Every structure is written in C-alpha cells, then in structure tokens.
Amino acid sequence: MNSLQIPPTGSAEVHVLHNGYVGRDGDDDRVSGTVTLVLDGDAVIVVDPGMVADRDALLAAIKAHDKAPEDVTDVIFSHHHPDHTVNAALFLNARIHDHWAVYEGDRWIARDAHGAQLAPSVRLVRTPGHTNEDISTVASAADGVYVCTHAWWSADGPEEDPLGVDQSALENSRQLLLEFADVIIPGHGESFRPGARA
C-alpha cells in the first residue's frame, strides 16, 4: 500500500470519453482536454468536461455507456482552465468539485479536496504544479488504479510544463501519483502506463 492508502483494486469503471490534444490538423490554436467518465456504485462522475470540437459527440460517448447527461452525479475540475471546465453546464444535476469546495445549486461547501472520497473506489488528491490548485482523480478499478491528472499533458511530455506555476511542486505531484498509478489519463492525450512511457 502507498502513503495515501489507495487500494490496488476496486469497484470503479473508467472510460475515456474524449482524448484531449494541443494543436491539431496543423492548427496550433486548437486545444481540447481529456474527458473521462468514472462509474462507481451510484456515482456517475465526469472528470474535466472542457473544450471539445463537438459537444454532441461527447454526449453520445456518455450515452454509449448507458448514461444520460442528467444521470451525472459529480463533475470534477482538475483545475480551473476553460479547456477543462467549459462544458460543465451540460450536466445539470451534478455536484461540482474543485480543490477547495463542492458546489451544488446555490451551495458552496468548503472542503479540502485532498483525500476526499466521492465513491467507494474514487478519491481526490491534491497535485499542484500546473496550477497551485490542481487536483487529480484516483479511481481503483478491477484492473488497477487509474489517475486523471494534469501532472502530465500527454505520454510524450513535455517534461517541463510550459504553463506550469511550480515545476518543483509538479515533480513532487508526479512522484506521489507514481506510487500507486497503473494508468495515467493525462490532461491532453491518450492514457498510458507509466512504465511504458517513451
């Protein structure tokens, strides 16, 4: 077991709905965050519902897992950049979680995200570096521990975050996550296994 007591297996199901990117089709202005669906018990969680080229395609990806937008119970922002948050309003019934609160209707419920448990096998972990407020979503599934995080942009890097506020904190956050992560779901790319990185 690791310092956060993350179980190596659990009841969560993790589905990447949309692989993010930075620059696409020769257009450097195009950016999209990775969007992930986590199912665990009664929880239907969407992580980082940010900028996508086609909202209908995102909703169709959720429906492919037999869920509707109104079924989503929780939305998690890894941080507050629009490429990770702009589509939160698609999920009208969801509580929204960030680094310091839960937002439900007109209620702002203060709490530190570090260690917060959202479902039997899903918890949040404070992972600053890209911003001072970054959090990661940790989901223990039958086949291992998945981490949705902006501690990595993609499997290919960059090693130094060009928009990061604190590279030293980012390195510490990466080391923490590598204590238990079997699969990294990065902020702007396809999932990867840490040991398989180039």
- Determine the CATH topology: Metallo-beta-lactamase, Chain A
CATH class term = Alpha Beta
Task: Identify the strand order in the major beta sheet.
Answer: 1-4-5-6-7-8-9
Order of helices and strands: EEEEEHEEEEEEEEHE
Overall 3D shape: globular
End-to-end separation in angstroms reads 27 Å
Task: Find the CATH superfamily.
Answer: Ribonuclease Z/Hydroxyacylglutathione hydrolase-like
CATH architecture, by name, is 4-Layer Sandwich
By helix and strand content, what is the structural category?
mainly beta
Number of helices: 2
Query: What is the domain total for the residues?
Result: 1
Biggest β-sheet: count, sense, barrel?
Answer: 7 strands, mixed
The number of strands is 14
- Proportion of helical residues: 10-25%
pLDDT < 50 stretches: none
β-strand amount: 25-35%
User: For the residues shown, what is the average pLDDT?
Assistant: 95
Rg, alpha carbons = 15 Å
Topology diagram in text:
Layout: E1 13-18, E2 21-24, E3 27-32, E4 35-40, E5 43-47, H1 55-63, E6 74-76, E7 95-97, E8 101-104, E9 107-110, E10 117-119, E11 122-126, E12 135-141, E13 144-148, H2 167-178, E14 183-185
Parallel strand pairs: 5-6, 6-7, 13-14
Antiparallel strand pairs: 1-4, 2-3, 4-5, 7-8, 8-9, 10-11, 11-12, 12-13
